[in-house]
Amino acid sequence: MLQAKCKRDYHKFSDPALETRVNQVENGIYTNPLIFSSPPITQAEYTNIQEGYITAVSEYNTYGIVKKTALTTSRGKMISTVDLIASYVDERAQGDESIIILAGFEPTSTTMHSSQPLSVIENFTLTRTNPLEITVLIPPITGYGSISYFCICSEGAPIENLSIANGQIVLDNVTTKIRFDYTKSKKKVFQGLSSTVTYYFYVFASNAVSVSPISVVKSIVAVV
Q: How much of the chain is helix, strand and coil, in % rounded to 5?
């Protein structure tokens, strides 16, 4: 039997997914002082690194490649900080999955499953297939057991603070029309859309042991 530890899958996360994990870890560690009484850094130090990373992401999204080095440096510092806390949680948990989950991490598998936990879906395509119709194609995930594929569509504006926590979708302050496709197929067809409106799409998947993080958003305009 393997001993559960904190998964370091966030090393390969997109920035939106990494931001979600960073928030989960902050909430898990610093709101449970009876369990995590002596984290390796203070909440103020963690928040300072977190805010620097979020600022770097925002500036990169605004100014592009000229901010790439700053984003890479800030992202690396953020991941190293989460790694430091993960090591602390591993020592504190001693294989107890409930403590690992409480800390905001996902536990590694303690048995050899044919299905392994899923990471974020990096690539998917959007195509206008008919008037006022958009088709989403998600690339197949192989080697992770039986996979179900899901898609969320937002009309007119992206969804703020969209995340998945413990397999549950979290929508915060939603003011746009939202469509969900839970048909489990890799191909999603959204019909009856509005002309000249921009639609924003997010995808994720699940298998027997996990739900993947939400993907990076992609957008396309529906036209007649």
A: 35, 25, 40
